[in-house]
Every structure is written in C-alpha cells, then in structure tokens.
Amino acid sequence: DVKVTQSSRYLVKRTGEKVFLECVQDMDHENMFWYRQDPGLGLRLIYFSYDVKMKEKGDIPEGYSVSREKKERFSLILESASTNQTSMYLCASSFFRQGKDYGYTFGSGTRLTVV
Amino acid sequence: DAKTTQPNSMESNEEEPVHLPCNHSTISGTDYIHWYRQLPSQGPEYVIHGLTSNVNNRMASLAIAEDRKSSTLILHRATLRDAAVYYCILRSENNNAGNMLTFGGGTRLMVKP
C-alpha cells in the first residue's frame, strides 16, 4: 500500500516563527499536494507539485511556500507563522497514467497551533 | 471542475445498507466520479471511483446513472466504523496540472447501533 507520512501529528509554534511541515510518500508518485482543513471551510488546496522542483499555487497560497527537491518529499513552509494559520494540514500524493486514474492517498495530518 | 451536490448529513442503522446520493448535473464526458471518506481525526481516504459503468470493490459499490448526472455510493452493511464524512468529487481526466481534487462539504454519515 502507498504510504504518505507527515512528520508531525501535532505542532505548536509561536507567531513569527518559520515552520516546516514535511511530507514523504513511498510509491514514486509524481503529484503531491498540501491542503488545510478548517471547520466549516472544508479542505482547501494550498499548493501542489506535479514533478520535482515544480510547484503550482492552489486556492489559498498566501503566507505559504513549498519545496520539492526530491520526488518523494514535499515540504510546506510557513514563512512567518500567524494565528490564522492554526489548522489541520493534510498532504496527499497521486498519479495518473495511460488514461487510468489512481486516486489520492492522504497522510494522517498535522494539527498546527500557532500561539 | 464541475460541482457536486450532496446532502449535509444522513443517518443509518448498523448492519443496514446505506445509499449516499450525489448530483453532478454539469459533469463533462471526461470527468471521473470519485468518492472519498474522512474518519474522525484522520485524513481522507479513497473509497471508489468510476467513469460510466457501475463499480464494486471491497469497501463499497458505485452506481452511476445512465446520463451520468448523478451517482450513488452504496455501503452494503453499515458498521459503526463507517461513520465519516463522505465526499463526492469530480476529477477531469484531462486536468494534468496535478489532477487536483476539489472537496465540497460532503455528507456526514451517522451510524446508529
């Protein structure tokens, strides 16, 4: 089975800190995604990447950046954490090949609290 | 991507079948119909997907209307562990920009013992 591993289950950071959320997948998927999930707002796409060193903005990229130096790793960076970035962050990976769609696999999530 | 409409919540009794509806009247010919579910305190997990024909797997069945404007996720015997939010999502085969999934509000399924 594909595994998507997020480095931390819970994180508490201070306002203004630079925060790194790490995500690793073990099945050679091309596509990787970062979402955040908030009550009443559902899952919203922050950034995605469809290849090493490639990145695309999602619906809410402000205040975030990403890094994909290796195919298996996709990092989400909060340049200067703010309290409105307190949320559940979910990483996912997927691939789509020869007309066949293989769906997404999600990690378990990182609950980030910014104080 | 085309939008989907689902009821906000549904209730079921344990060990009874559950039919979760989804309307997608603006679906295009290349859109796959995906279902994901999210258990409490976990990330979403893939359930099933299809294009035109009905699909079965170990988790569920997907019944797709002939005109593809609606679909139904069928859990044959609901268990307490099936209590989750179920998302119906359309995903374009032609969207190669990461093949994004756009999540709506989903249906919260409650299972009563």
Keywords for this structure?
heterodimer; A: 115 residues; mainly beta; 7-stranded mixed sheet; 4-stranded antiparallel sheet; 0% helix; 59% strand; globular; B: 113 residues
The number of helical elements of chain B comes to 0
| Order of strands across the main sheet of chain B | 1-9-8-3-4
Strand content of chain A: over 45%
- Percent of residues in helices of chain B: under 10%
**Number of distinct helices of chain A:** 0
**Global outline of chain B:** globular
Question: What's the average pLDDT of chain B?
Answer: 90
**Largest sheet features of chain B:** 5 strands, mixed
Q: Which secondary-structure class do the elements of chain B indicate? A: mainly beta
Order of helices and strands of chain A: EEEEEEEEEEE
Give the percentage of residues in beta strands of chain B.
over 45%
C-alpha end-to-end distance of chain A? 37 Å
String of helices and strands of chain B = EEEEEEEEE
Task: Tell me what you see in this structure.
The complex is a heterodimer of chains A (115) and B (113). Chain A is mainly beta. In chain A, 0% of the residues lie in helices and 59% in strands. Chain A has strands at 4-6, 10-13, 19-25, 31-38, 42-49, 56-57, 64-70, 73-78, 87-97, 100-106, 110-114. In chain A, strands 2, 4, 5, 6, 9, 10 and 11 form a 7-stranded mixed sheet that branches. Chain A has a 4-stranded antiparallel sheet with strand order 1-3-8-7, with no helix packed on it. The model of chain A has no long low-confidence stretch (mean pLDDT 92). Chain B has 113 residues and is mainly beta. Chain B has no helices and 9 strands. Chain B has strands at 9-13, 18-23, 31-38, 45-50, 55-56, 61-64, 70-75, 84-92, 107-112. In chain B, the strands form 2 sheets. In chain B, strands 1-9-8-3-4 form a 5-stranded mixed sheet, with no helix packed on it. Chain B has a 4-stranded antiparallel sheet with strand order 2-7-6-5, with no helix packed on it. In chain B, a hairpin with a 6-residue loop joins strand 3 (31-38) and strand 4 (45-50). Chain B starts with 8 loop residues before the first strand and ends with a strand. The mean pLDDT of chain B is 90.
